[in-house]
Amino acid sequence: MTTSAQSESTEAKAATTVVLTDVAAQKVKALIEQEGRDDLRLRVAVQPGGCSGLRYQLFFDERSLDGDVVTDFDGVGVVVDRMSAPYLSGATIDFADRIDAQGFTIDNPNAQGSCACGDSFH
C-alpha cells in the first residue's frame, strides 16, 4: 500500500535526478554485460566545454564519490555527481536506434539552448 507521503517523496526524488527510459536502461544493461563486470554503473556528468559552454558525459564507473546521487532503473545504477545534479534535475536519458538518430539522447528541461552542432548546451 502506498501512502501519499511515500508517493510525494518518490515524485520529489524523480524531479531531482535524471530519468533513464526503459529502452535506455536495457541498452546500458547490455553494454555493461558486454564489459563482463557487475560493479559498473552509468555515470552522467556535466562538464565545461563545447560551443555553448557545457557538455554531457556518459560513461561507466565503479567509483562512489562523496555527494553522488544514485538511482536504480530496472537494475541499472545511474550516478550523478553533486556538481552536475542541478544541471540534470528532471532530465530524461533515452536511447535511439533509428536512421535519423542513433545513440543516447538527453532531454533536459534545464538547457536554455544548444549549439548548432548539438554537442553542448547552456
TrEMBL record:
Question: What range(s) does the Core domain occupy?
Answer: 19-119
Instruction: Tell me the superkingdom of the source.
Output: Bacteria
List the signal peptide residues.
Answer: none
The UniProt entry, under Gene3D superfamilies, shows: HesB-like domain
- Which Pfam families does the record cross-reference, listed alphabetically? Fe-S_biosyn
InterPro entries according to UniProt = ATAP, ATAP_core_dom, FeS_cluster_insertion_CS, HesB-like_dom_sf
What the entry lists under NCBIfam families is as follows:
iron-sulfur cluster assembly accessory protein (TIGR00049), PRK13623.1 (NF010147)
PANTHER family in the cross-refs: IRON-SULFUR CLUSTER ASSEMBLY 2 HOMOLOG, MITOCHONDRIAL
Q: What is this protein called?
A: Core domain-containing protein
Q: What is the lineage of its organism?
A: Bacteria, Bacillati, Actinomycetota, Actinomycetes, Micromonosporales
